């Protein structure tokens, strides 16, 4: 019989799953992640992310396994050096094949390299990740490659994620995106790598973005173990209507996404977060973003 927290989370969506294949060691593949999500929480969908490649190709290769799993698995592309950076052709292929999310540079962003020049806190990569892909030119304007990428996202109605970029660069990209009619935008873990304070995040929200917080930072079974009160305060300041909760899990040796959601979301309820607010952040908001 399902527990109280399992009933609250039933039908949720996890927009940030690091299952494999990947150059980094992973705990399970995308089909195994979707199966665990369905069997234990009846999740509506997951989005699988790689810092290296278009994950739609992985999902097509696993189509036979995924066909019998009710939880939908969606892919996307992160615009790091391995795919040519701000590459509209790679974005077009991904989105035309069913991709749902385009992450601007993560490991190839200047901000990420500043924080992790030697990949501190990350597994040793099998390919060089420190190939900086900047979105802002020396004169302070967005580089020309940004516009056609945004055009592809706008045409597909896909999700634009700010990646691991500098806070001010994310704001510039989101401002341009809004002008192109993009209305599905996300900033992941603003207080990890990116360093965007709540006041900066309110600017993103004004542009139409959601702020995503990850179980990875708050699950006591993981390595970071930030105080759950920090997450509760973020939600209180910015509002559940502007917040998405995702796992950012799948790495080998780390908790499974379902276990992390059960622990962290249970702790939020213990702090007094209303069940309806939790469902909005894990079910309603990500469902809107993915248009499902």
UniProtKB/TrEMBL annotation:
Tell me the domain of life.
Bacteria
Organism equals Ornithinimicrobium faecis
Matches recorded under InterPro entries = DUF6282 (IPR046249), Metal_Hydrolase (IPR032466)
Q: Name one Pfam family in it.
A: DUF6282
Protein name as it appears in the record: DUF6282 family protein
């Amino acid at each position: 019989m399902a527990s109280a927290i399992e009933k609250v989370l039933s039908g949720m969506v996890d927009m940030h799953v690091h299952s494999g294949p990947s150059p980094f060691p992973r705990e399970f593949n995308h089909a195994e992640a979707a199966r665990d999500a369905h069997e234990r929480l009846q999740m509506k969908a997951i989005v699988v992310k790689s810092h290296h490649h278009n994950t739609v190709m992985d999902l097509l290769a696993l189509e036979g396994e995924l066909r019998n799993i009710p939880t939908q698995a969606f892919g996307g592309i992160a615009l790091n050096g391995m795919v040519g950076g701000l590459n509209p052709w790679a974005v077009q292929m991904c989105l035309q094949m069913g991709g749902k999310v385009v992450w601007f540079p993560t490991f190839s962003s200047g901000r990420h390299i500043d924080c992790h020049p030697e990949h501190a806190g990350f597994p040793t990569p099998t390919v060089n990740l420190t190939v900086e892909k900047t979105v802002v030119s020396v004169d302070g304007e967005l580089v020309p490659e940004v516009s056609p990428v945004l055009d592809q996202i706008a045409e597909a109605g896909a999700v634009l994620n700010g990646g691991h970029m500098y806070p001010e660069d994310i704001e510039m990209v989101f401002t341009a995106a809004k002008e192109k009619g993009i209305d599905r935008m996300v900033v992941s873990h603003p207080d990890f790598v990116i360093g965007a304070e709540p006041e900066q995040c309110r600017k993103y929200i004004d542009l139409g973005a959601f702020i995503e917080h990850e179980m990875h930072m708050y699950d006591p079974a993981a390595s970071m173990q930030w105080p759950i009160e920090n997450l509760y305060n973020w939600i209180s300041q910015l509002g559940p209507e502007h917040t998405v909760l995702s796992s950012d899990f799948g790495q080998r040796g780390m908790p499974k996404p379902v276990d992390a959601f059960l622990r962290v979301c249970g702790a939020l309820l213990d702090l007094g977060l209303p069940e309806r607010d939790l469902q909005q952040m894990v079910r309603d908001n990500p469902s809107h973003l993915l248009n499902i």
